[in-house]
């Protein structure tokens, strides 16, 4: 079930999808949660620390809009990322997921390592898919927004992965208090539900045609037919549509 650009979780299915546009709403809080860990002093201490972070006393709650902590993961570097080819860029994503997962292990030592796929299309930037057992990412949006993607999208999806594997994680709302707490307290980031990436190139209909009155989005199949000579006219102004590619960045 989709609500404000996100998918609500059901057992055995994916939890949430980070997508473009839509308001950034917080969702109602959930009850206290705990991590399923072996009953040892060290893990009990980590468990209590996380429970305290999820449900802090009123005297230490941060006010709405308070500045987030310093990001926990190192900055990947814009210049370095801009020089990577496709293979190196994919490895950078895998390394970032690994770093985020290892950070989560400090609070949930039994958290399984997620598998990683780059097979999302359209406006969705990332997705935690519990049925498949891992995280899905959008290769087009990643390639076009390298730095912001590693800094924001990877922690966003890893936070979903962590919350889901808490003992009561299946009851938590996709972007509820547990997820927001992980984003702030663990990753040191402001919990944003949506992204602001330009999704034109990642759209299911990424080919732009224009007439005298508007723009038209063509699928790859219709674009191929147009390139072979098939003509298309606008139903409003009756002008022949002309292909106008998006500017390369």
Task: Give a description of the structure.
It is a single chain. The protein contains 7 helices and 7 strands, in the order βαααβββαααββαβ. The protein is α+β, with helices and mostly antiparallel strands and 249 residues long. The protein has a 4-stranded mixed β-sheet with strand order 1-3-4-2, covered by helices on one side. A hairpin with a 4-residue loop joins β5 and β6 (215-218). It is elongated. The chain starts with 13 loop residues before the first strand and ends in a 6-residue tail after the last strand.
Mean of the pLDDT scores?
75
How far apart are the first and last residues' alpha carbons, in Å? 35 Å
How would you sum up the global shape?
A: elongated
The total of beta strands comes to 7
Q: Helix share of residues?
A: 25-40%
Question: Total number of helical segments?
Answer: 7
Quaternary arrangement of the chains shown?
Answer: single chain
Question: Strands of the biggest beta sheet: in what spatial order?
Answer: 1-3-4-2
Radius of gyration: 21 Å
Q: Give, in order, the helices and strands.
A: EHHHEEEHHHEEHE
Query: Beta-sheet strand percentage?
Result: 5-15%
What summary fits the major beta sheet? 4 strands, mixed
